[in-house]
Amino acid sequence: MATVLGLRNIAFEVDDLHATVDQVAAEGFELVGGIGQWENSWLMAYVRGP
Question: Which SUPFAM superfamilies does the record associate with it (predicted)?
Answer without folding.
Answer: Glyoxalase/Bleomycin resistance protein/Dihydroxybiphenyl dioxygenase (SSF54593)
